[in-house]
Every structure is written in structure tokens, then in C-alpha cells.
Task: inverse folding
């Protein structure tokens, strides 16, 4: 039997992940159908574009929207802030799922206003085909059961689940747990050196990859017109017939 986590991962890895977001929330997580049709918003700097917003689900007064983000990557922090400001006129609190135009990346953003009108945007990123256990486990916390539907779901219940799923501290702990697991697996695969030298080599490799990922998320790196820089390099490496990717 397929587990909840496996279903979530399948939706995020689907070739039509933009449509998969709808079935993820409505069929797997048990959210209700949206109450409105797609609409457009005019987003100011640094985006300066008209963006189509597609409603995919809703629970209580919290809607879930989807955006196909152009350019092959996902929006920067500043771009997300600009989109939130434009979308807040339609839904002050919402979940917005950005899907990269090429389907390689997804980032879910929960936007809400805290006390003092401070806007808080919490995110859960996912890259297709790459282990994203943290995001999958956190999304599972947004599931509603039949019993919950039968007893009635109010706004405070939805907000509590969103708070739990997008909990920065919990996400950080899960990230480092997964980081340690993958670090250990990679270290075991390295040959030719041992002991402290192997550990230092693995640490240097991970440090470099994290730095590249940081730059990639800023959309500062491109390869063959793609902003998913590392994945683009890996795809080209595969087409070249193998050899050392490290070299």
C-alpha cells in the first residue's frame, strides 16, 4: 500500500507537477476545492510582470494557489515579497506554490501578516528527482482526515497545521538530520583516502555544493540558459557519456 509520504513525493515528481499540486492538496492532503477561478495580478519591481494565479485548493479561509514561474528556476526572496504584496489584495493569508517553468523545482510559500503589519513568508522547497525528505515530511502535516472533515474544520485548525508544517525550527532540524545521513553515505563512497583526510574531503565537497546551491537559489548562475545550474551540469555530463563529474 502506498504511504502518505510516497504519494506526496509522487505528486511533486510528476512530469506535470503544476497539475500535480492540485491533486496533492485535494486528493492526498484532503483539502477542499477552490472557490474561485484563475485570475491575474500585476506585480511591481523587481518582477514587473502580469502573473496568472491558479487556485488549486482551499481550507476554511486559507486558499492554495499555483504559479508557473518563468525562466527555468524559482523566484528569489525579493520576487516572492513582490508577488505577496500584489496577491495580498485577494488573500491576505495564503499558500502559494511556485513551479519552475521546466518542472524541475517547486517551492511552497505560506504568506501571512504578523502583528505590526510585518509580512512573514515561510518556504518549503523541493527539487524534482532529488531527495527532499524534509519537505515531504512537513507537507504530510497538512493532511486532513475524514474524521476532521466530519467534525468541522475551522480557521484556527488550518493555521495551526500551517504553523507546524512551515515551522522553521522543525524544518532546520530535519534538514540537518538528512544532511548528516547523506554526508555519511557520500563519505563511505570516497576511495583512495581514509580517516581524517576522507572526512575533510567530504566536508569540502559539501561546503562547495551548498555555496553553489546558495548562488543558484539567487538565480545568479546559469548554464545553457537554465537556472537550475547543478542539474543542468549533471544532465550535460550524462549526455557526454560519463567520466568523472568531479573533474
Result:
Amino acid at each position: 500500500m502506498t504511504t502518505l509520504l510516497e504519494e506526496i513525493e509522487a505528486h511533486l515528481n510528476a512530469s506535470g507537477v503544476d497539475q500535480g499540486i492540485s491533486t496533492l492538496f485535494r486528493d492526498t492532503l484532503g483539502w477542499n476545492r477552490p472557490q474561485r477561478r484563475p485570475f491575474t495580478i500585476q506585480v511591481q519591481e523587481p518582477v514587473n510582470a502580469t502573473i496568472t494565479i491558479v487556485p488549486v485548493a482551499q481550507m476554511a479561509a486559507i486558499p492554495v494557489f499555483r504559479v508557473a514561474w518563468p525562466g527555468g528556476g524559482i523566484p528569489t526572496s525579493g520576487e516572492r515579497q513582490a508577488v505577496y504584496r500584489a496577491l495580498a489584495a485577494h488573500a491576505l493569508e495564503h499558500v502559494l506554490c511556485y513551479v519552475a517553468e521546466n518542472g524541475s523545482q517547486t517551492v511552497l510559500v505560506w504568506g501571512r501578516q504578523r502583528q505590526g503589519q510585518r509580512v512573514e513568508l515561510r518556504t518549503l522547497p523541493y527539487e524534482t528527482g532529488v531527495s527532499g525528505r524534509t519537505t515531504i515530511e512537513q507537507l504530510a502535516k497538512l493532511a486532513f482526515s475524514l474524521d476532521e472533515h466530519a467534525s468541522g474544520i475551522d480557521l484556527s485548525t488550518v493555521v495551526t497545521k500551517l504553523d507546524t508544517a512551515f515551522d522553521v525550527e522543525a524544518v532546520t532540524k530535519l534538514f540537518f538530520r538528512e544532511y548528516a545521513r547523506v554526508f555519511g553515505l557520500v563519505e563511505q563512497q570516497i576511495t583512495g583516502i581514509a580517516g581524517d583526510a576522507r572526512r575533510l574531503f567530504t566536508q569540502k565537497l559539501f561546503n562547495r555544493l551548498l555555496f553553489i546551491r546558495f548562488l543558484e537559489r539567487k538565480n545568479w548562475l546559469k548554464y545553457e540558459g537554465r537556472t537550475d545550474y547543478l542539474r543542468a551540469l549533471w544532465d550535460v555530463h550524462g549526455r557526454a557519456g560519463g567520466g568523472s563529474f568531479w573533474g
Remarks:
- DSSP finds nine helices and six strands in the chain.
